[in-house]
Queue: 2 jobs
Job 1
Amino acid sequence: MNEETVIQACGLTKYFGARAAVYELNLEVPRGCVFAFLGRNGSGKTTTIRMLMGLLAPTRGAGRILGHDIRTLTPEVRARIGYLTEEHQLYGWMQVRECGAFQARFFPRWNDRIYRGVLGHFGLQPAAKVKDLSRGERAGLCLALTLAPEPELLVLDDPGLGLDPVARRALIESMIYLTRRSDRTIFFSSHHLSDVERVADYLAVFDRSVLRACCPLDTFRARVRQLRLRFPGPPPALPKIPGLLQAVRMENELRVTIVPHGGAAEKILQALSPREMEPVPLTLEDAFISYLGERGEKTFILSELEAQA
Amino acid sequence: MPIVFHINTGSNTPIYQQITEQVRLAVTTGGLAVGDQLPSVRVLAEELVVNPNTVARAYGELMREGLLESRAGRGVFITPKRKVFSRDEGWRRLEPLLGALIGEAMTLDFTPAELRAAFEAKMHQWKHPKGGDRNE
């Protein structure tokens, strides 16, 4: 494993009973990037994160985090990782200030300036009781607790979940602030594509237990393409098209979303002799939804390798 | 006057491209002049709340086009325009924009005279470094 790879999964698989929650996952997260882990609810994101954190034993396969086997993570390695869970587990009877003092005892390093800075960013008073905090404030507190030990790898499981727009913006600002140190890596799952668009360099798309895309965000956007074909009459039957995601048939028009591989799909579409064929620009959300929506073929995968080809 | 960027997420234009387009527009309309300084990658990224690599990519593209230059230790500046595209390539890029403009004007029921007048009025924003029109 490359020293510049901070997370690596190799055939990582987890079964719950007969159901595969994560199937044959291969993943590499380079050091220093902001990596978004996307997928619908129940697609296996949290299970993957829990395996990578060494909290859940994989059924098969292997993983390494900061170069260490995920099955045998020591407290020293764990202290270099900041892990923010979905549930924001906190003790309700503690004050915000006490949470920091408590957490600090578990880490060799504790930067109280960062702790107070993040609290301030979320408008949290040190004397406030945890049980009186709003959802957004709890998220801010958890983020402060996660960032203060200055972890070199930050793993955030759906940090934007249930946050109002102001709290979400504070979260994103904190993430951007963190990239000031170029050796820090952020791995986060999210459903907020506008946040992903702002902060992520890389994305991975998970669909029903299987990784379906893993590449730079710009590559994903550039590679998922929609073409509009106009015909003088009703459009012809659609032949088999490699990399087809979706085809929508209208009166005189076909709208085809594809992940093209070397022009083969375009050639087939051109052979239908449309009166006009033009690309339709897609938003990140459009691309994501057509990537995960219903369709016939689902064997291809975007990789960084293809992007370079 | 410093340039004020507006970033829209959920647009079909990627963020880095929104930045390059806004710089180009500010330069053509005189909002930015030769020698003006732009914020550093880090400062702009934090101001716009976007990944610094996105800003770096936008600046990189503008530098390749010859619109921006980075002066060591001092920052990023608007350069005197040098020609990076051939005349033919320039036209190839301009042509579709003109077509789109006319098409849009037709759909919106403007007359050719109205479009011409609006075009002329807008042209006054263009502060050409050589000063004024070639025809005058």
Job 2
Amino acid sequence: MAEIIQEEKGKGGKRRAKKHPPHIDMTPMVDLMCLLIVFFMLTTAFSKSKIMEIILPEKIKDPSKQEAPRISASRTLNIILGPDGKIYTYPGSVKPEEYSAVPPILPPLNETDYSADGIRKIMLDRNRTLARRIAEFRQEVVSGKITISPDSVRSTISKMKTDDDTGPIVLIKAYKKANYGNFVDILDEMNICGIARYTFVKIAWYEERMVELAAGVAPTATASAR
Amino acid sequence: MPKIKLPTQSPHIDMTPMVDLFSVVLIFLMLTTTMRQPEPATVDTPFSISETPTPDFNMMTFLLAPDGKVFMNFDNGPDTILAFRPKILQEMGKRYEIEFTEAELRFFQRYKSSIGVPILQMKEFLSTNDNNVRNRLNVGVPLDSADNQLAMWVLYARQVNPNIQACIKGDSETEFATVEKVLDILQEKNVNRFNLITSLEAAKINLEEIQQ
């Protein structure tokens, strides 16, 4: 295109040049800008990453000084993050004596996964009242029935969670073959389902054995050593 | 000749509006850009529904690579004049009896991406100009119980900047054992509040789903 224009100028002579203002060819400039735009688009971190806050209970350095908190077994739900994207849940608690007893008294270990039909359903089932209250509240805010600032929305929801005394107390444990993605997923699931009380605890050796038995993994050295 | 003359009427596209538009986009991008920092290990953060943005300052980030290496990064705080990073390094140097020069401290302050260099090799890392050498030394912070340098970094970072918050940036494939080790070390140093860095993914449950 550029060549044709030049040719035109040459042929047209002075008469043409007088009619038109000098014509600047913008094409190289456009090329350059394209390059720059592509460069900036690729190097820009557009979406800022988000954070998910988790507060873990303080480590008890001297167990003799502090008694373990008592929680009711009927409300307790144990979630064990297993290998290969599996989750094992069981209600209540197991004592090491119960595991060692012959025959071992074991709670039913329920296998599930991270899908919406899996762990989310289980937790929603147990957390229906609170989840409904939170969802209804959110709905009212979205539809404009209540107009409050986002900060008060958050504090109202956290108040609902503190007041709730029917939902499950979830203890999250991770088998060592689980990965970080599983950990984030399960915490995320807690937020989605509006679980009021959950915490992350170290997995006990007998729970490791239970998972190994259920998943069909050979017991690892650390577990059998104890 | 006449035959050649005919196509001289070829449509001429005016590029000016295009240039205008590109300028606007370019200026916008240049002003809003925050350069992506090259990290020593590629990390794909997992997704969550959390919408809280990452804070800009007062954070120490632990990068947990899928192969179990741990890297860390400290922020300078709200104002670079406060210069937390060289102070932290100086404290570390005192502990391990290594004297860092002014230039090395300045390099540590300016170094943007995460660092996972054992403290004994830190001097070499900071004084070299060769990127290959630097990459070779960036092997992850030692965190075994014999020489727990990560715990020391956390300790001094918190001494120098009491407001510092712990952020954990892990790959979805990072084994949980690594995560647990880092969490343990942090809790050992009385850090009980963690920010897990995630990417946003919208997932909401609606009323019907709850009521079924």
